[in-house]
Amino acid sequence: MPYSLLNRYMDECRSIQQAEKEIEILCGFECDHHIDFASWYQESFLDNHWADYLCGAIHYIGKDERRLYYVGSLPRDKKLLSLYTDRYIEAIESGLYSFMVHPDLFASSFPNWDEDTKACSLAIIQSAKEHKMPLEINANGMRKPMMKTSQGRRWPYPMYQFWELAAQEGIDIVVNSDAHNPKHLDISHLGIYEMVKDLNITPLGWDVTTRSDGSKFLTLSRPTSESQ
Fold first, then answer.
1. Distances (CA, A) of 153 to 105, 112, 167
2. Spans of all domains in the chain
3. Helices 115-130 & 160-169, crossing angle to 10 degrees?
4. Do 172 and 135 contact (CB within 8 A), yes or no?
């Protein structure tokens, strides 16, 4: 969607939000984090309650702004993996986001679980734990072709070893469809819930909170024993 259509899109979403009584509808944005835009995200989307939530991502990185690489198809350069790690942690530390998405997207470019991918994973997970930032297990990677690795075939992401470490650290985790099409909202057949169960992960629940001015925002919480 072109940026020029954003206001119209938001007006339409708000109209539906006010009219719909059967389900809760929130308006949020997945933002590629960049330090130069952090204050703009804060002022344009959060301070005025224009968005109900933001989630953070790192999709593109580069050693300089003249050449950017998509994280899902990086050259196998350890320096780029380190740069991704630093940028992702910077996004966590910004405090702008309700949760951070597909932290293991780098696994699409670095297929093998080794000391480098483990170090990247641990750094991101430890930062998320320190800052109480939920991380997203993203089901969209399960719709993509399987990859061959030295440990066998796997999805590009989610990367099992990453989430095994995350589970051991006890960080907050959300499960998300990342649906680019309405028919992709149903993820029950992809195997993601089986993976979550195998890792003994209890994902956070999605809740909606209403402010005194009537605006809404996303809240994430651990499910009660009755709702599990």
1. 16, 10, 22
2. 55-201
3. 40
4. yes
Mean pLDDT in residue range 102-127: 97
Q: How many residues does the chain have?
A: 228
CATH node for 55-201: 3.20.20.140
> Which has the closest alpha carbon to 54: 94, 7, 83?
94
With beta carbons less than 8 A apart as the criterion, state whether 97 and 103 touch. no
Closest CA to 59 of 27, 22, 100, 28: 100
The count of C-alpha atoms lying within 13 angstroms of the C-alpha of 94, restricted to the half-sphere facing its C-beta, is 27
pLDDT, mean of residues 30-58:
96
pLDDT exceeds 80 at position 93 = yes
| Spatial distance between the Cα atoms of 20 and 55, rounded to a whole number of angstroms | 24
